[in-house]
Amino acid sequence: MLVLSRQRDESIMIGDNIVVTIVDIRGDKVRLGINAPAEIPVHRQEVYEAIQRENLRASRLEPSDTRDIGNLAAKPSNQAPVNKNP
Amino acid sequence: MRISTTRFGRIDVETDDVLHFPSGMPGLEGCREWALLADATNDALGWLQSTNRSDIAIAVVSPRRFVPDYQIRIPRSELTPLRLSDIGQAQVLVVVAQGSRSLTLNLKAPIVINLEARTGRQVVASGDLPMQYELVPERPPLKKSA
Lengths: 86, 146
What we know:
A: 86 residues, three-stranded antiparallel sheet, 1 helix, B: 146 residues, mainly beta, eight-stranded antiparallel sheet, two-stranded antiparallel ribbon
């Protein structure tokens, strides 16, 4: 891993079209600004890895596993509400 | 074109019906071309079948069929690669998986499809949405006594 030190408002270039800028540093939290072409997805690593795991799990599903899906509904509100206002 | 699939045997797909995912999907980056198939027995269900990997297929559903109040906020940067200016022009599907207790829907990372351009992408929706939203059997209607 390449390790560089940067201060607030300084930037790093990755390749010739990705720029990462230190927007703010507060305590142990760093706010990063990322400028990248739209086709390049940018995600928090743990979110990306969770989606990867979910997709790989989902890719093992067979039609026989889904036979009863027509009879299923969402679990009522003991799960986190889905429609949160910002 | 004829493609082989491990779940559905060999099937014919119109080249124009194939969806192009420029970034593949996380974990499935090599799969960029997909055919959206209807399930033979379930009209609630579709299958995204990889056209180059016969063993890779993802079960998908229209989320509002199961979660009527499902709404997503997607950063514009996620829509631009699909050449969409607003989410209303898109078809949104969510991925089905087998959880420990029931089938689950990934509401956090829906698949957004631009039907006109035949492109698709799995996006990360803003907000605290579950990746494993559990589906349970519907309660049968109460029986009326004779």
